[in-house]
Design a protein that fits this description.
By secondary structure, the chain is α+β, with helices and mostly antiparallel strands. The protein has four helices and five strands. It has helices at 20-38, 59-71, 103-115, 120-136; strands spanning 5-14, 41-47, 50-58, 75-85, 97-98. The chain has a five-stranded mixed sheet with strand order 4-1-3-2-5, with helices on both faces. Strand 2 and strand 3 form a beta hairpin. Helix 3 runs antiparallel to helix 4. The radius of gyration is 14 Å and the shape is globular. The relative contact order is 0.23.
């Protein structure tokens, strides 16, 4: 088993876009517990029926989590946009954190999710920046 630290990012669409924000609390509760057990960290953004998630951890733990996500009926059209070995975690403080969707942050969250497929590295950096600003507020 490889213990190489990896980062994966994916985009997906909510199966029921009108419930995406409501679903966030459910996802975070389960993800926080599972990710603590599996030593995964990451961030989840949800806006306008779209998801963008970054996960960091050992390859086998990411694979197990990814299989659960792919089987989750709340997601459809899941696209892995990056998977890479990394030297350190960007989201090491959080088992799973979500950017708070507020009117002032909505446009920024949408921009991050819009970048997901075209420039995943920029989307990951922007998600980290968004969380840093959220913590500073």
């Amino acid at each position: 088993m490889s213990l190489t630290l990896q980062r994966i990012a994916y985009c997906s669409d909510a199966a029921r876009p009108e419930l995406a924000i409501q679903t966030l609390a459910e996802i975070l509760a389960v993800s926080d517990r599972n990710n603590a057990r599996d030593n995964l960290t990451g961030v989840l953004l949800i806006s306008r029926g779209r998801f963008f998630q970054v996960l960091e951890g050992a390859a086998q733990d990411i694979d197990r989590t990814l299989r659960r996500i792919q089987a989750d009926r709340r997601h459809r059209n899941l696209r892995i946009v990056v998977r890479e070995d990394v030297q350190s975690r960007l989201f090491d403080q959080w088992g799973m954190v979500a950017a708070q969707v507020t009117p002032s942050r909505q446009a920024h969250i949408d921009q991050v999710i819009d970048r997901c497929s075209d420039d995943p590295a920029a989307a990951i950096d922007a998600a980290r920046d968004l969380l840093d600003r959220q913590l500073a507020a």
